[in-house]
Amino acid sequence: MTYLKSNDLFGKLAPEKLFDQVPHPILIADHLLTPDNIGAMIRLADNIGASEICFLGKEDEHRLGKVRRAAASSRDNIRWYFSEETDLHKIVPESKTIVAIETTDNATCIYETQLPENVAFIVGSESHGLSDELLSQCDMVVYIPVPGPTRSLNVSHAAAVALFEWQRQMISNAGVSTSSTTKGTLSLSKGPSQKYKHIFFDLDRTLWDFDAAAEVAFERIYEKYNLKSLGIPSAHEFHEVYHPLNEQLWMLYREDKITKDYLNRTRFMQPLAHYGVHDTALADQLSEDYVYWSPRIVRLVPGTMELLDYLKPKYHLHLITNGFQEVQHTKLSGSGLEPYFETLTVSEEVGVKKPNPEIFLYALRKANASPVESLMIGDEMAVDIDGARAAGIDQIFYNAGGKTVEGERTFEVKSLKEIIGIL
């Protein structure tokens, strides 16, 4: 064993090659108090190869000398600056996913979270952490478990843990070997994030904002049939009564316990009956108008088009849905989504519904894809994720509400934007 200076070792391994495959991270720190911490953060940003570091707050000339001394040579190697801007999206490029390092009730353990490739990390001040205003602008929040008796990390230490965990994940995803090769550099090979060729999406509540479109459809129905005269207070309240009843009927429909016709009629008969209205003919008219309007009122989940624009040149894209065939085709053709997808698999054509693995296997055959090279993205754990896993397909659980949901999944995201960091 022979001692090597770090410059000699890393000069041979060339770890900066990591950034041939992933973008350089950005680091943001909110109102740090001590020059030593500011200097340490500059040095850390330089060590990790960050593109820049931004310190939120007013620049203080009196402490800049101490900051420069603490940062040492790193002060000249990396862009660092102060900003009094409070809108993170004016500082961080749109392509970056903003990840807060903080302890909140919805934070996830950093070691159990798939961090995005194109990342901007933000840390709070030594005394107050991150403000609610800044936290509300973040795409993800992660915490670092601290097992010792002092349950808080120095801000520069916390940033270091997060950045090097990010680096570890990027190395693992890219298939980078950290040992020297015959050429003396890091070796790059195909990694897990590159193994997928086919991406399968659920439609409703994953790409298509089903509930937003339904609200507008109910407003039109409410006005057309003057439902106020029947004692129904508002379109919104009518939809609030309708929604849970409809969900129960769809569950029965997925389990093949009721027919499509029964679902269409009953889902309006029951809400009308809630208000003492027993009119089968009216229920049929409401159902017919709803089926017409709901797929023609285009409402997409935020980030849908940006995600599809990113994925389309890189992957084969497909849809798997339990919806009715004529309704789903109308949604695709009228929303601009249709050109993105090579195949559409609807439960009606297969004869089984998600989560039955047969519909996933049917979709694979239709797409000429294998399970190992495929990935399923959906918002329902029991329907999309469990079904895909049973068919041997990796999954991304789109958990927009950030609720605690039991079950195994390959990845989990709270926004569609985070998927870009995985793929």
What do these coordinates show?
The chain is of the alpha/beta class. The chain folds into three domains: 6-188, Alpha/beta knot (3-Layer(aba) Sandwich), CATH 3.40.1280.10; 198-207 and 300-422, Rossmann fold (3-Layer(aba) Sandwich), CATH 3.40.50.1000; 210-293, Putative phosphatase, domain 2 (DNA polymerase, domain 1). Helices cover 40% and strands 14% of the residues. The chain contains 15 helices and 13 strands. It has helices spanning 6-13, 35-48, 61-71, 132-135, 155-174, 210-224, 235-254, 260-274, 280-293, 304-311, 325-335, 347-350, 357-367, 381-390, 417-422; strands at residues 26-30, 52-56, 79-83, 97-101, 108-109, 119-123, 140-143, 198-201, 316-321, 343-346, 374-378, 394-398, 411-413. A seven-stranded parallel beta sheet has the order 3-2-1-6-4-7-5. Helix 14 links the parallel strand 11 (374-378) and strand 12 (394-398). The radius of gyration is 26 Å and the shape is elongated. Mean pLDDT is 88; it is low at 176-193.
